[in-house]
Predict the structure.
Amino acid sequence: MNMPKHEKIAYFDCFAGISGDMCLGALVDAGVSLSALKKEFKKLPISGYSLVSKKVIRCGVSATKVDVIIKKAKGKRHEAKKWKDVEKTIKTSSLPEHIKQKGLHIFKKLFEAEATVHGEPFEKVHLHELGGIDCMVDIFGTLIGLDILGVEKIYASSINLGSGFVKTAHGMLPVPAPATAELLTGYPVYSSDIPFELTTPTGAAIISGMKADPYSLSEITMEKIGYGAGNKDIAHMPNTLRILIGWQTKDSRNAETVTVIETNIDDMNPQMYENVMEKLFKVGALDVFLENIIMKKGRPAVKLTVIAEARDVERLTDIIFEETTTIGLRFYEVRRKTLERTTKKVKTKYGDVRIKVSALKGKVVNMSPEYEDIKKIAKKTGIPIKKIAEEIIKRFYG
C-alpha cells in the first residue's frame, strides 16, 4: 500500500510584521540551538560580531530575542556594499551549496529592489542599512535554521507593515520603506495604525526570496511553534513573529488556491498571441490558453485565460495590458489540485530522454516523454514522433 508522502513546512505568521532578527528569534524559540547557528556562521568569511539570545515577554507572550552585536567601532556598522562585495562573501564561504544559492537569490532581490526604487543600475547600487554584518547573519541564520529543522516549503500570512516614517541613509521615508514595498509585490499586506516600521526590507526579502506561498496553508500537523521578538514592546499586541513548524501531506499540499485572469479580445492580430503567451509563461504563469468565443452582435473573438499564483498576478497583468489590445481584465480565485510531478531521465538507443511522471499518493498514474527531446530524435533519425514515444513508454514501464 502506498502511503502519502509528507512535507515539512514553516508558516510565517506576520501579524506584527517581520524582520531578520525576528526570524532568527522565532527559529531559536522553535528549537534551533544558538550553538549550531554559531558553528555554521564560521563558514562565512565575516567577523567582528557576536550572537546573543534571551527570553523576553511581549504583551504577555514569551518570545526569544536574538541580537547581532557588532564589535567594530561606531560608524562602521552599516558600511555600504555593492552586489559584487556581497556575492564574493557568499561564494567564498564554505556553506552548503544549496544555502549559498538561496542566500544569493535573497540578496539579489534586495539589490534589484533598491535599484528599481532609486533608479540606479544594478551593479552600481549600494546597500546601506542592508549591507552590514547583521543583515548577512539574519538572512543566513534564517536559511540555516530552516535547514536544520528540515523545512522544505514556506508559507506566509498577510503581512502587517506598520505605519509612519523610518529613518534611512536616504532620509525619512514612509512605511513601508520603498524597497520593502517593491519586494512584497504580489503578497497580501496591510497597514496597521502602529506608528513605526513593523516589516523591514530584510524581512520582506526573506519572504520574497524564499518564495513563501501566500494564502495556501492547508491542513498541517503542527510539531513546533516559535516566537521571535521585535525590538519594541507594543501595547495590546505581542510584537512577535510566530513560526509554525509542521508536517503536511503532499496530497493536501497539492490542493492550492490560484488566481484566474481573463479577458475577451476582438480586435487583435492573432499572430501576436504567440509572443504574448511566451512572455506570460516566462514570468511565472502556471497556464495560458485561448478560446474562440462569440461576443455581442455576433462578433468573433478570443478569450485569453491565464492561471497564476497570487504573487505573480501584478506582473502578468502588466504584460497583458502592454502586449494586447484589451482595456479590462477579470480576476477570480479558484482551488486546484495537481498530481505529484517529477522529471526522470530514461536511457534509450537514441540518447537520454526526459520523462514527465505524475503520481497520486506515491503511485505513478501518468507519464509523458518530453516533446522537445523526442522531436530532436525524430529530426535526427527520420522516425515518426509517435513511434519514438511508444518505444520510450514501453521502456519506462518495462
Q: What stands out?
A: The chain has a mean pLDDT of 87. The chain has three domains: 6-253, 255-337, 340-397. Residues 255-337 form a domain with the Alpha-Beta Plaits fold (CATH 3.30.70.1380). The CA atoms of residues 155 and 166 lie 27 Å apart.
